[in-house]
Specification:
single chain; alpha/beta; 20 helices; 25 strands; 21% strand
Length: 555
């Protein structure tokens, strides 16, 4: 892993596609700004959840081509991709085979059959799925309200529940009289009238079970069965990590990503892979660590490093376990630490985190914002709980939206807000936050919207009231709009800082970092390699900083 700054964006975040983004990266003002590019998974053939519901890992041709990846390589920019290990789209070839062939599909247990999983651990409901007994379910942590399952129709007419931790959509296409003729005994008048009623109720969002069948009770069962057999699904279906075909698929995808030029893969949602009754089913130990070791070995066989996505509190110590295993880890603590320091003028907690990384040799990728918003729950333990709570409330006043973990004790785990809004849309604070990030230990990851000083996109919710809260932080710019934003002083100054970070010899491979705290509201971070050095003196209270260096050339 090189030490240079990493751009983080969708392939169409700054332009219509990756080809236009490459053109932006070739502009003189972008020279030396980035050494790596973490491209989010809409670059692949995907549907829901901003690309995290992958159909196949083939490139999405409307977003990117192999020639674009090769152009990035010529710019000296290496690549990181997501590998979404916990789930595949319901539209994937594997799950579509289940829908077509049912029990005869070789992928029948590639995904987790909910009822088979909970057999003997609960009671069957009238809807046809097992409700786990309270002692089997109480410790579960959930990413959405309700039961994490999706009922799908098998070819023999059975509805079978499959585990579905994240998103799903079920829709029913409209019908016409010809579709209903067999179900209504070839009565065209009844088929015509009933199809009109059904379509009107579908527009109202009603399912067949919720519809008014008055006057057509005799046909309700066959027509309802017909509608259910035609339903369309979108969703992220949890894979069964115990199944050998899943590991064959893992190996095949890693080879495919390596062939695209990846040097690192981000292991998305791998903490939910191991599932068992009466367990929390998030970071089950020791099984999660065993899975990680197996994945690391498989990735290494393809020349890939792994970046595990672990959202857990600082107090849990999971980040330390990753270090013990020799893994790079995401610094999900820095975003809240910096916001707290800039809001309070208190550098103590930020300094303590810098010292810990240096003293204990932690290998991290740090960030300000990202596609998922600002982690809050992660900071508990490195920041006092009352500081985390106070910061959360301040972010709400700045336009932030809470994202919750559901379960026995719901809590805010993330704030959906741009980092620029989180800083009160203050250019000086954004520049200072970027400067501190670039001098903190680790490899800096830069969310494109932070780079472009992007504010909350409230319009997205007027366009689509059902939009996920994270869309507030995912504004897409045309190439022309992005070029205009590159002229903003706060953007130009960030690019100068990034180029300095990537080209000054003090930050070269094997460089050492030092941290000092001259006072409780200041911090000094220094990088050294040989005779070269670069130092940042930052005053969190006054929002002032100075960069000095061995060659006197500082941004």
């Amino acid at each position: 892993m090189n030490n240079g700054a990493m751009l983080n964006a969708y392939p169409d975040s700054m332009g219509a596609n990756l080809h236009e983004m490459v053109q932006l990266l070739q502009l003189p003002e972008m020279k030396d700004a980035f050494r790596s590019f973490y491209i989010l998974p809409t670059v692949f053939n995907s549907d829901l959840d901003g690309g995290f519901s992958v159909i196949t890992y083939d490139l999405c041709r409307s977003k990117a081509g192999e020639e674009d990846l090769q152009a990035l390589n010529r710019l000296g920019i290496d690549l990181t991709f997501d590998f979404i290990l916990n789930h595949l789209s319901v539209l994937s070839p594997q799950f579509r085979d289940v829908l077509r062939r049912g029990d005869q599909s070789e992928y029948r247990d590639f995904f987790i059959d909910w009822n088979r999983f909970w057999q003997g651990c609960g009671q069957m409901t009238k809807e046809g799925w097992i409700a786990p007994d309270p002692d089997q379910w109480a410790s579960m942590t959930l990413r959405k309200n309700g039961w994490p399952l999706l009922m799908v129709r098998f070819p023999d007419g059975r509805d079978v529940p499959y585990w579905n931790t994240f998103y799903q959509q079920v829709t029913y296409p409209p019908v016409d009289a010809f579709d209903l003729l067999d179900a209504v005994e070839n009565r065209y008048d009844a088929a015509s009238a009933l199809s009109e009623r059904i379509n009107e109720q579908l527009k109202q969002g009603l399912t067949p079970a919720q519809m008014d069948w008055t006057g057509y009770e005799a046909y309700q069962e066959p027509v309802q069965s017909l509608l259910e057999s035609r339903r369309h699904y979108l969703g992220q279906m949890d894979v069964n990590v115990q199944h050998p075909l899943v590991w064959q698929w893992y190996d095949q995808v890693m080879g495919q990503l390596a062939a695209y030029g990846a040097v690192m893969i981000r292991l998305d949602a791998f903490t939910r892979l191991h599932k068992a009754p009466a367990r929390v089913n998030f970071m089950n130990e020791p099984e999660t660590w065993d899975i990680l070791q197996r994945l690391r070995a498989m990735a290494a066989s393809h020349g890939l490093e792994v970046l595990p996505e672990i959202h857990a509190t600082y107090a849990s110590g999971n980040y330390r376990h990753l270090t013990d295993l020799g893994c790079i880890t995401y610094d999900y603590f820095l975003p809240a630490l910096l916001l707290d320091a800039l809001d309070t003028g208190d550098s103590r907690y930020l300094y303590a985190w810098a010292r810990e990384q240096i003293d204990d040799g932690l290998s991290v990728i740090n960030m300000l914002g990202c596609h998922d918003g600002i982690p809050m729950r992660d900071a508990r333990g490195i920041l006092p709980n009352e500081r985390v709570d106070a910061l959360t409330e301040r972010l709400v006043t700045r336009g932030g939206r809470r994202k919750m973990i559901h379960g026995a004790k719901p809590e805010t785990y993330q704030m959906d807000i741009t980092y620029y809004n989180a800083l009160g849309c203050d250019d000086q604070k954004l520049l200072m936050a970027r400067a501190v990030q670039l001098f903190m230990p680790g490899k800096p990851q830069v969310w494109y919207l932070d780079l472009l000083a992007g504010a909350n996109d409230e319009e997205v919710f007027r366009r689509d009231p059902t939009a996920d809260n994270r869309e507030i932080n995912r504004t897409s710019f045309t190439k022309e709009e992005a070029e205009q934003r590159l002229k903003l002083p706060v953007v130009r100054d960030q690019l100068k800082l990034l180029a300095f970070r990537n080209t000054h010899p003090a930050f070269g491979e094997g460089a050492k970092v030092e941290a000092e705290q001259p006072s409780d509201h200041t911090i000094r971070l220094t990088w050294r390699k040989g005779d070269a050095w670069a130092s940042l003196d930052a005053d969190l209270r006054q929002v002032r900083w100075e960069i000095t260096g061995s060659d006197g050339v500082c941004p």
